[in-house]
Amino acid sequence: MSISPEDIAFAKDLFSGLGDITTRRMMGGLCLYHQGTIFAIVHSDSTLWIKGAGAFIDRLEDMGLTKWSYTRKDGKTVEMPYWSLPGEAMDDPEEACALAREALRYL
């Protein structure tokens, strides 16, 4: 499954309060950038993930968000520095942009 034009439009609209958002398709998903810095990704299954770094990681974990991980062919589990975007942020551009701004402060 790949990212649809609708997925791209939704993500750009959700984070439009940040200003100029650029995107780049990668590995079946989509990377979201603000001023050249990646702050979120959209997986090919349309799920949105926010990037965590520094003290923002503690906040994401305190919110009980799921960290993205996958299992390689050799059986090793790999964790990536992205957490699931909370459901309320998926429906509220102000909340989504507030989280994105916080993420960008630590990137």
Order of helices and strands: HEEEEHEEHH
Query: Percent of residues in beta strands?
Result: 25-35%
Total number of beta strands: 6
Q: Main sheet, how many strands, which sense, barrel?
A: 6 strands, antiparallel
Average pLDDT value?
Answer: 95
Uncertain stretches of 5 or more adjacent residues: none
User: What is the helix tally?
Assistant: 4
Layout: helices, strands, pairs:
Layout: H1 5-14, E1 21-26, E2 29-34, E3 37-42, E4 48-51, H2 56-62, E5 67-71, E6 77-84, H3 87-90, H4 93-105
Antiparallel strand pairs: 1-2, 2-3, 3-4, 4-6, 5-6
Notable traits:
alpha+beta; 107 residues; 33% strand; six-stranded antiparallel sheet; single chain; 4 helices; globular; Yope Regulator, Chain: A
Describe what you observe in this structure.
The chain has 107 residues and is an alpha+beta fold. The protein has a single domain, classed as 2-Layer Sandwich (Yope Regulator, Chain: A), CATH 3.30.1460. Helix content is 32%, strand content 33%. It is built from four helices and six strands; from the N terminus they run H-E-E-E-E-H-E-E-H-H. The protein has a six-stranded antiparallel beta sheet with strand order 1-2-3-4-6-5. A hairpin with a 2-residue loop joins strand 2 and strand 3 (37-42). The longest helix has 13 residues, at 93-105. The protein starts with a helix and ends with a helix.
